[in-house]
Amino acid sequence: MKRLYIFIILLFLVGCGSNNKDTDEQNSSSNIVNISDNNSSSNSTISDIVNNNDLVNSNVTKIGKAQLGVISNGTVKLYELSGADKKLLTTEKTTVGDRIDEIGNFNLNIEKLNNDKYYLYEVSGGDDYDIEDDGIINSVPKSNKGIFHLIAKGSTIKKANKIYITIISEIVYQKVLPYLNSSDIEDRLNSVSMDIIDKDITGDSAIDFFDIISYNPITNRDNLNTYYKNSIFSMITNILNGQKYDFKDDIYLPDSTTETEIQKKLDSGDYAYVLNQLLNNRDAYRDMSDDKIDMNIAGAYVGQSGYTVFDITSAMANSSSKHSLNSFVLDTTKDNNP
Q1: Which terminus of the chain is less hemmed in, N or C, by CB atoms within 10 Å?
Q2: CA count, 13 A, side-chain hemisphere, 239
Q3: DSSP H helical ranges for 133-207
Q4: The domain containing residue 60 runs over which residues?
């Protein structure tokens, strides 16, 4: 009888251990979700939400700031990205306070970041205490009903002294969101940054993604190009009101990245400029179809090489698809050589 009792107790303990293992596995897998909606947050949570009220006076050296205007008591989730999948790492609250520099801060948790991986910071809820972005605290804040983001590489986050999550970082996030499974995310981040920023912010004489994460809405609005500078407050209002705003197709084209500018360069004989731009930065020319871009590349090669109409006709006749202009373009631009 004694042995029977021992056997029953052992069965009970094994059963409990098995149940705990299942629970752990479920908790781990539930933290991985797919990024399916720009303006929706994952329901994934971490039970211990970090309160950062003493963050400014702590030993934390890398601080982020959530700032449409400064967001007090907002929720910041940090995700690790794997393509379009995201895994929740931390959840915390932004700081409250009586001054602009005290409100909206949070720990970037850089100790959790891998240099070569991409990460997503997601801000929701809280109250905006500087709706006009003029550096003056509002006596009555506006409740934030929306969500905004910042996506960046681990090494980029670690290199920055401070990172701002703003309307500008949300625009960049939405524009690169369809390409999270591609291998050129970093190039796209820099390319989109050049569309948005008109004047260098960081002082390194270059416009790139570091200007996006360094953008302070109070002091740097004049660094934006005219289109975004004039549109920024309506965009912020949409987010605060919880209204969905799709920035992916929100196109601003600098004069230097249009078909008109390319045509001017072709007409002036600046073929090297055309080839450099269209071969290395073709995604920036969004008013040109792929066929138009290829045609202009071919035209630059033709001009650069001194081809004649007879040469073009002969090339077309000898191409794999005889008398095909498209085939001639492909043959001409193959391996970046005429």
Answers
A1: N
A2: 30
A3: 154-159, 167-176, 185-196
A4: 34-240
Contact 223, 201 (CB under 8 A): yes
Tens digit of each residue's pLDDT (9 = 90 or more) over 135-161: 999 999 999 999 999 999 999 999 998
Domain identity same for 145 and 267: no
| 8 Å CB contact between 64 and 76 | yes
Q: In the listed set 240, 268, 300, which residue is the last one of a domain according to the structure? A: 240
16 located within any domain: no
| DSSP-derived pairing of the beta strands 105-107 and 75-82 | unpaired
Among positive and negative, which fits the CA dihedral 26, 31, 34, 40?
positive
Distance CA 65, CA 105 (A): 4
| Structural domains of the chain, count | 2
Residues 277 and 155 in one domain: no
Note whether residue 28 is domain-resident. Answer: no
* Dist. CA 243–CA 212, nearest whole Å: 23
Handedness of CA 113, 119, 124, 130 (dihedral sign): positive
3-state helix, strand, coil in the chain (%, to 5): 45, 15, 40
Phi/psi at 120 (nearest 5 deg)? -125, 125
